[in-house]
């Protein structure tokens, strides 16, 4: 199982950090978490074709996490000489079905023509797939936003999406090999719907994670030594995400 950061940034793109997107590969199966603008191009740069993508997961419905869903749907019916027949499985927070229906009203030309799309809304659940498991928990960023825990090949990756400090994050991150956690702002920054560096450190320590990947950093977080701020409360491995970074490779069993 391996992990690639496709978009390490926020709604404010910078040269190294684009809007949200995370790729997890389990064997030959790609899983895409969030589809912010430009994600499809960065997916191709990571060596994954949209033709092979069947599983898409949304943490919440803000534009910097969802805009390229329209692009993904469009290219599936617009590729010369190729017709998609395999279904797309779209899993997301509460409201995903309504979001999709409104997207079809806005762009009727991108509606699936030769394949089906299966939409599943989740809150706090555990879902078993063939050889891997997804667990979700509420993050508190919005009323329905969720984090994902991916278990496969005896390893665990957790992706928070946007979040704020809450006990459910600590539980879903328990003993994770990799904790891809929003670190939007420096320690002490006034916010009630995002994570700060000190909050990230406390959750990572309480959850006993092995490695923290600081993700979704707004400009104020890039103006300080954000790693040092997290390390004040967490003494494990810490890396700062940039676009295209293959954060970890976990040998297939």
Describe this structure as you would to a colleague.
With 253 residues, this protein is an alpha/beta fold. It has a single domain (2-249), classed as 4-Layer Sandwich (Metallo-beta-lactamase, Chain A). It is built from 8 helices and 14 strands. The protein has helices spanning 39-45, 63-66, 68-76, 96-106, 167-172, 197-207, 219-222, 226-231; strands at residues 2-7, 21-26, 29-33, 55-57, 88-92, 117-121, 126-128, 132-138, 146-152, 155-159, 178-182, 211-215, 237-240, 246-249. The strands form 2 sheets. A 7-stranded mixed β-sheet has the order 6-5-4-3-2-1-14. Strands 7-8-9-10-11-12-13 form a 7-stranded mixed β-sheet. Strand 5 (88-92), helix 4 (96-106) and strand 6 form a beta-alpha-beta unit. The radius of gyration is 17 Å and the shape is globular. 45% of the residues are buried. The model has no long low-confidence stretch (mean pLDDT 95).
Summarize the structure.
With 253 residues, this protein is an alpha/beta fold. Helices cover 23% and strands 28% of the residues.
Beta-strand percent range: 25-35%
Indicate the CATH architecture. 4-Layer Sandwich
Corresponding CATH superfamily: Ribonuclease Z/Hydroxyacylglutathione hydrolase-like
What's the total helix number? 8
Write down the overall mean pLDDT: 95
Going across the biggest sheet, name each strand in turn: 6-5-4-3-2-1-14
Structural class: alpha/beta
Q: How many strand segments?
A: 14
Task: Please name the CATH topology.
Answer: Metallo-beta-lactamase, Chain A
Low-confidence stretches: none
- Topology pattern, helix = H, strand = E: EEEHEHHEHEEEEEHEHEHHEE
Helix content: 10-25%
Distance between the termini: 9 Å
Give a short account of the largest sheet.
7 strands, mixed
- Shape estimate: globular
Specify Rg, calculated over alpha carbons: 17 Å
Domains, number: 1
State the name of the first-level CATH class.
Alpha Beta
């Amino acid at each position: 199982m391996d992990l690639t950061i496709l978009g390490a940034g926020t709604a404010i793109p910078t040269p190294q950090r684009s809007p949200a997107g995370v790729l997890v590969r389990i064997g030959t199966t790609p899983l895409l978490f969030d589809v912010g603008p430009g994600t499809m191009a960065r997916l191709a740069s990571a060596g994954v074709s949209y033709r092979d993508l069947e599983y898409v997961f949304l943490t919440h419905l803000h534009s910097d996490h969802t805009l390229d869903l329209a692009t993904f749907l469009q290219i599936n019916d617009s590729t010369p000489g190729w017709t998609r027949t395999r279904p797309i499985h779209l899993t997301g927070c509460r409201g995903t079905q309504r979001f999709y229906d409104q997207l079809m009203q806005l762009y009727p030309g991108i509606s699936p023509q030769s394949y089906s799309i299966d939409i599943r809304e989740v809150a706090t659940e555990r879902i078993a797939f063939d050889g891997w498991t997804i667990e979700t928990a509420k993050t508190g960023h919005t009323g329905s936003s969720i984090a994902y825990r991916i278990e496969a090949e005896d390893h665990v990756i957790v992706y928070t999406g946007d979040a704020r400090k809450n006990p459910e994050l600590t539980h879903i991150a328990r003993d994770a090999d990799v904790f891809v956690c929003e670190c939007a702002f420096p320690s002490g920054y006034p916010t009630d719907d995002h994570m700060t560096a000190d909050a990230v450190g406390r959750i990572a320590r309480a959850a006993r994670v092995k490695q923290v990947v600081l993700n979704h950093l707004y400009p104020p977080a890039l103006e300080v030594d954000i790693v040092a701020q997290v390390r004040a409360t967490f003494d494990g491995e810490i890396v700062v995400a940039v676009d295209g970074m293959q954060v970890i490779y976990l040998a297939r069993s």
